[in-house]
Write a structure and sequence with these properties.
The protein is an alpha/beta fold and 190 residues long. The protein is 43% helix and 16% strand.
């Protein structure tokens, strides 16, 4: 069975970003995938210190919550990274995760190569395009395959639940989930 992992980088549990990600994962489930949501909220995600020890040992010397998340990412067929816009970019937790798992992936032989996935972003008002691109660059750098949707995978909302009023954003998130499953199935066809 196809497995899609969604990682929400918001420090707010059940906030707009998590709600939008749940729409994407629900659509993936409707397409036949199993899904899992991982919250970075409350986890210890230390920034990369650039030591490059991982290139020699194939492991990160920093002991925190990144290791188990990296394992889940390696096991998944599809990965969605979801972040709210914080001061015009992804959250520090999300970027720390991206940097750490990016180095680890390279050290272990590009383990995300040919996986399917993409970014999902929630903005109050602006910054969504930069944040979307910021996360998209990770997927492209890792050699992953990013499906399109009906628009960029963004939605708007500030107060908890406001994202649910953005019908176009919800529709885009759902279509993204469907496209992830569709693409994984196409890749796995004999």
């Amino acid at each position: 069975m196809i497995h899609v992992l969604g990682i929400v980088g918001s420090p707010r549990i059940d906030g707009n970003t998590e709600r939008l990600l749940k729409e994407t994962l629900r659509a993936a489930e409707e397409g036949g995938a199993s899904t899992e949501l991982v919250r970075l909220a409350g986890k210890s995600i230390t920034p990369c210190d650039g030591c490059l020890t991982c290139k020699e040992t194939k492991e990160c010397k920093i002991r925190d919550d990144v290791g188990p998340i990296f394992e889940k990412m390696m096991e998944a067929d599809g990965i969605v990274l979801a972040s709210p816009v914080y001061f015009g970019s992804a959250t520090p937790e999300m970027m720390a995760l991206v940097h750490r798992v990016g180095y680890l992936s390279g050290a272990k032989g590009r383990v995300f190569e040919d996986k399917v996935g993409g970014p999902l972003v929630v903005a109050r008002r602006a910054g969504q395009n930069f944040t979307f691109a910021q996360l998209l660059f990770f997927f492209l750098h890792q050699g992953m395959i990013v499906p399109g949707s009906t628009y960029w995978n963004i939605a708007f909302g500030r107060e908890k639940g406001e994202v649910e009023k953005d019908e176009e954003g919800l529709r885009t998130a759902r279509n993204f989930g469907k496209k992830i499953v569709w693409l994984i199935n196409k890749i796995k066809e004999p």
